[in-house]
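Data card: per-record layout.
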Amino acid sequence: MKNDPLIIRRSDQPLDAICARLPAVAQKHQFGVLGEHNLRQKMESKGVAFDRECRVFEVCNPRQAKAVLERAMEISTALPCRIAVYSEAGKTVLATIKPTALFGFFAAPDAASTAREVESVMTTIMDETAASGSVAG
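The structure for this 137-residue chain is written out next.
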């Protein structure tokens, strides 16, 4: 779907292997992992049973974040970028909201070029992380 607001990649690799590989791949592309949230553990710690495995990585390139924040501070509500990793139909899925879709919510048209750059790198990070035995989706 051309106007799909998501970037999705599927891999035959186990979820734990994908999660272990993602931080190094992100760092290779000048993105740091600011946090990792294990949603199943978090919900269970709050007394909510959740049997699916889902981890959310917060990733950021500080130079690009600075560039967009200098244009429109309200973009901070969409930062950092997130990559969700979960299992679906026997595959490990990596998914993120396209930065170009997110930045479209803000009145900062001059931030569009940075959003395109970030989106390109996020796609590369996801492609490389899912690489072995993966299918683009």
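Known properties of this structure: Residues 65 and 79 are 8 Å apart (CA to CA). The domain at 6-136 is CATH 3.30.310.70 (TATA-Binding Protein).

See the next section for split statistics.
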